[in-house]
Write a structure and sequence with these properties.
This protein is an all-alpha fold and 74 residues long. Helices cover 84% and strands 0% of the residues. It has one domain: Up-down Bundle (Substrate Binding Domain Of Dnak, Chain:A, Domain 2). The chain starts with a helix and ends with a helix.
Amino acid sequence: MNLAQRINALRAAVEERIQRLNHSSLSTADRKALQDAHAFLLQTGEAMKRGDLQESMNLAQKADLLVAAVEKRH
């Protein structure tokens, strides 16, 4: 799997996890974390369009970490 495919797979997985968590009762801080994670995913797409795959992966990983932190609390 090349880097672009790995980024797309991570983006899709994180987006799915965000959607699942959005149906939970979350604190204000957790909702903010999910909003930030979603913003990182949008930036991931922009970085891919620019051809900056490393930046895109970094942003996807940041989103993944934010979502994982929320998941630990729920």
